[in-house]
Amino acid sequence: MKFKILLGSAFRSLRHHKMRSLLTTLGIIIGVVSIIAVMSIGEGAKHQVRQQIEKMGANFVVILAAPPKAITQRGNVYFTLKPSDVQAIKDECPEVYLISPGVQYQEKVITEGANWMTTVGGVNEDYLEIRQLTTTKGEFFTAQDVRASSKVVVLGIRVAKELYGDRDPIGTIVRIKKIPFRVIGVLSEQGRSPDGRDLDDNVLMPISTILRKLLGKTNYNALVLSVYHKEKMASASRQIRSILRQRHRLQPEDDDDFTIFTQDDAFQASEAASSILNLLLIIIASISLIVGGIGIMNIMLVTVTERTKEIGIRMALGATTANILIQFILEAITICLIGGILGCFVGIGISQFVGLLLQWPIFISREAVVISLSSAAFIGLFFGYYPALQASQMNPVEALLDQ
């Protein structure tokens, strides 16, 4: 019996039981919708995180004055990065383009009629270029301000709104630890970091000012730098690590007393986290496909029982065991593929809707569609085989006599 005839027979059987066929495909539809939506939204989220990381600066490297084990511990602040460390990196690492020492801590900023607890940070004049930031009002402080320890600040846009509302803060005075600072600029909006921190909730001042007038320290708790070429970030990171270990007199068996993050590290960490999350969600979504497959097996077993006489007539007219087996497998696969196709359309629609709600870019990959349809076809083959085998092994005489 030709394949085309068997396929036509399978379609006729499905049309004869339209409602039952549709209900049977629901499990497959839900499973495919879940896979399409998870993969599409996951790719959109990955792209969104990548954009956020790219917004944090060009080819940047961050060095924290804390060992890796202490990064997650709150309350401990390390000031172990020295001005001489900064100079050594400038002199001995030719890949470094710009470098800014940094200090930050939580402090209340007060102005007339308002106050706000925020992150107060100290950086130098190169920080704006390293992070690729701009000011939406006023200007950033200069190298002269850093040398003179000028009492000037630049506000993050969130702080500016909380303290001033719609008023222009440029030229006004804010107080930090009762010390007056003149507002000279407001940073443009940055949004949130990949870990959820509000990058607009901060106040920046010259690094020398925060060390001398607020903290009474000489060392830094962070360095932020950029390298000339993106592909040189890894080698620059290795050179900086070697320089700092030598300057801090660490023995080969000693752990680093600092932590280095590169832009590539951030990309890789976000990719790994997204991949693990997507895998878990796809596994959960696959459960719907398995449940749908079990439903198809049950329906196909019922169908075989209902069509016993039909099977007997086909065999009496010359249909072989293989013909019967292929016919019922084709019916199961057809049901699953119809469910898979419907699921793809619904999944794409849901993904686009979620993308509009979250304002994320949504990527409907060919891979997601192929995986979904292939999974649906496999479910049909796997769960349809046993009922098809039962049908093909019927005795034609008994099947014809069955009432």
Word description of this protein:
With 403 residues, the protein is an alpha+beta fold. The protein has two domains: 3-52 and 268-401, no CATH class; 66-257, no CATH class. Helices cover 57% and strands 17% of the residues. It is built from 13 helices and ten strands. The protein has helices at 3-16, 18-55, 83-92, 127-130, 143-148, 157-164, 207-215, 233-247, 263-306, 308-316, 321-358, 366-392, 396-401, and strands at residues 60-64, 96-111, 114-123, 135-138, 152-155, 173-176, 179-187, 202-206, 222-227, 259-262. Strands 2-3-8-5-7-6 form a six-stranded mixed barrel. A hairpin with a 2-residue loop joins β2 and β3 (114-123). The mean pLDDT is 80.
Give the key terms.
403 residues, alpha+beta, six-stranded mixed β-barrel, 13 helices
